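Reading is simple: each integer encodes one residue's backbone shape. The lines below illustrate:
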Amino acid sequence: MNIKYKSPRLLIRVMKISLQQLFLSLLFCTFANAHAVLSQEGLIETVTIQAENAQIKRVLSLIEKQVDYRFIYSSNTININKKVSLNVTKKKLEEVLNDLFKLLDIQYSVRDKRILLRSNNLLGATTSISNNPMLDKPIKGSIKDENGQALPGVSIQVQGTNQGTQTDANGNFSFTSLEDKEVLVVSFVGYITQKIAVGNKSQFDIALIPDNKSLDEVIVVGYGTQRKSDLTGAVGTIKTDAIQERRSASLNQAIAGRVTGVNVSVNSGRPGGRANIRIRGNTSVSVANNPLYVIDGIILNASDLANGSTPIDYLNANDVSNIEILKDASATAIYGARGANGVILVTTKRGSQEGGRISYDTDFSVGVLPKKIPLLNATEFLYVEDQAYLNAKKYDPVGFAGGKYVNPATKRTNPLLFDSSGKPLYNTDWQDEAFRNALTQNHQLAFTGGNSKENYGLYLGYRNEDGLV
């Protein structure tokens, strides 16, 4: 049967539509096949798992630790508490997953660095799990400081994973996909680290809180500021607790052994005697090597004091809050040439802002001579004299005959010291007479008080230290 078309344009139009539909069908089939191939090509990493009668979630966790992939699944459809046994050594990830999920009736697909799991028994299994908003939820947020200013460069890490990001110049950040159970760890230098659960939120506005404790660790060094951990020993600090641990006669002696590079030597036997302090050794052979002393911001001269004392010899250690010792070039940068031998900064205590308070502290100690020198008594000394006279007759007969040596017995005629037979009347131990037990007592009384606007402190101290001689 021959059919004639009245309009050739209609035939051409029908042919165009058929060709377009055929082309699009072939194109989508090609893309679908390519996507399936690409999804499996990445699973070439090898894993080693030794798990006996372990839960599925435990096995998946062991795999995640060895590869860069993360498993995405819903606990409502996948029984992650089911126990399995898996023992493989350096086996490809694709083969491991095929063997594992074949027994569990679980299908998987790969998208980027995520492995999506679904149960074969799930209704509507043809629907991709990646389309579930609960498992594939984008996260956005902004981070600001305590003044509401945007903070760039803040680190946001997904807890327990290697996934993380940083805020941009406007303080914004984003994640393409996170689960509700994930926890964000937000950290930045000088601020307290925060942990925030994702939950059902997709937008986060985070305000960081300053970490005052870490800010206190910044030290002024004259030509700028450095963190205390970066000074490598150039600044030594002694707190009041360390000073109170060991009772000492002076603040100089309390510094001894507390800071590296600071040598303290006591060159006097008097109670609370002077002590020499050398910071990193002697720097000159012609001028003084004493450090510069600064007490509450006031520079004190150490060259005009009597008996070579230092400005802190008579400072009560209980009145000191802390001591800082500058040992590097920062001392010269602040105080000039006077700080060339180092600087000792002393800060005294201040009044309390917690209301009125009275405190009393006392201690007693006894100083004893650690060791006596063994000496002869009076009888033993006279015996040694007699033996020396007899030895002279034996070893120097010529001098002895010429009257060079005198018999010591002829000199023992003083009735105040010897009896009629020349024996000593007294046997005195002059070490016992010269030395004694030295009693030391220390009393400290403090009155402090104040409020948020003003405070006061009154510190009274009495110390009495006897000498051993």
About this structure: The chain has a mean pLDDT of 76. The longest strand covers residues 438-450. Residues 17 and 23 are 10 Å apart (CA to CA).
